[in-house]
Amino acid sequence: MKIRRFTPKQTFQWIGCGVRFWKRKPLPWLLAGLLLSVSGLLLLLIPFVGPFFLAFFMPVIYASMYNTLETQLDPSKAAPAGKSSAALFPFTTLFRTIVTEQGALVILIPGTLAFITALIVFGAFTAIGGPYTTIHADVLDIGAFNLLRLVGAYLVAYLIYIVLMAHYFYIVPLCLRDDVSVKAALVGGAGVARKNALSVSMFLTVLFLPLLVSAVLLGALPWVGAVAWILCGTLLFPLAAHCAYCGNRLTFVNQAK
Hints:
Helix content: over 70%
Oligomer: single chain
């Protein structure tokens, strides 16, 4: 299978592609983004276990959003049955693959790997960030050294997640294909990600940077952080899904030849 390689500049062109696709059905996707951002925030606020559950379910949510885009934008993927209710669109967009065989596999394998990665990230985060990763205190009271440790911990954790996301960028859509086994999707998707590792990682790093800032603000200024997370997530989660659709279609454009 021939894989197309991208430069960082080319991956940022996926944003324009994603926006063009998004314009075909903007409001329902905004509602889906709002639902996901609020749900994700509630999980993050659950002490200790919340972030792990969020990491576990994100692959299947990504799979659901990607699958929704396929049925919308590719006539050959459209289901023969009638369209689902517009009121249910945000829920079906985020959770539709849970009830399918592929969705269950996406939860059990990539989801488990994401859960394990979250545990590793948490260990690195607390080791680098020090006691103030678990103790809430005013930013002005923790001192410059501890503040630098905390900022460094967030950056390291963010970079680890970006690497995982760069792999899942390709792995999860491959898991949805009927002609590709989950094992082949894991191996093949990771191989594709390595070929475009720098470009996709830079793209995702910049795209989700506002969410990192929002997560930091959650600890320092909870209400400001919560509002920032919801606003950013409402826009960025649907945009990321549309960009991922563009990126995957362009990467595998010659796969049938």
